[in-house]
Amino acid sequence: MPSPGKCDIVIELTVKVNFTPERMEIRMNEKFFDLKKEKQDRMINAALKIFGMRGYSFASTDDIVKEAGISKGLLFHYFGSKLGLYSFIYDYSVRFMSMELKAAVDAKETNYFTLQKQMEAGRLQVLKNYPCMQLFLEKCNAEITPEALTAIEEKKRELTDLYDAFDAQADFSHLPAETDAVKLRHILRYTLKSLMEDRFLTGSFQAELLYQENIAYIEFLERFSF
Fold first, then answer.
1. Which end of the chain is more exposed for a tag (fewer CB within 10 A), N or C?
2. Best CA proximity match to 215, nearest among 97, 116, 83
3. C-alpha distance from residue 128 to each of 21, 75, 109, 157, 221 (Å)
């Protein structure tokens, strides 16, 4: 498994966005990848944090450049616009998250709770490098701004399909007959999502501690499912 943060992630440099009645292309400057990795990650993490906390409409490029410690001119030099940055960050997040999840999850595993623990191990690797990436992706799921939705619509399904594939691996036949698999999934998903959001809102987020807390809740549900 490649070392997180040093992996080669191929990013599409042109993101096509459909608007009615016009068609618009968002292009990023590929020279962004010539920057030192530390500076790339500083810019990525700043955007993940501001977009993740406030959503597309309320996120300010002024706040992003302040968080990243760069000039606004530099930001627009590489990404062209706020929408261009948002599109790139989403694409990068989907690719990085997918890579770590695929590396962590055993394709032959069928126990639902074990699968969830493996997924949390993959997310932990992500959050060590990009603490706000999961928060950002969750925020994108609730996004309602038309231009932002259009910009990420093609990539949005990719991560959903991956989660669906992991769900399809799970075998619930060993659980009591009255167990509702759909409700079980929903309970766990909303619990873990709420824990993450609470840790950010209270300023107590730490990747390792959140991972341990998530595992504890998974094991709690596992004990009460038999």
1. C
2. 116
3. 42, 24, 25, 25, 26
Distance between CA atoms of 70 and 217, rounded to whole angstroms?
A: 40
- Residue boundaries of the structural domains of the chain: 14-223
Q: How far apart are CA 82 and CA 28, in angstroms?
A: 11
Instruction: Measure Cα distances from 176 to 48, 125, 170, 180, 224 in Å.
Output: 41, 33, 15, 9, 10
pLDDT 10s digits, 49-87: 999 999 999 999 999 999 999 999 999 999 999 999 999
CATH of domain 14-223: 1.10.357.10
pLDDT mean by block of 10 residues, the chain; 226 residues: 43 38 56 94 97 96 97 95 95 96 96 96 96 96 93 89 93 82 91 93 93 96 81
**What's the rounded Cα separation, in Å, for the pair 77 and 50?**
19
What percentage of the chain's residues is helix, strand, coil (to nearest 5)?
70, 5, 25
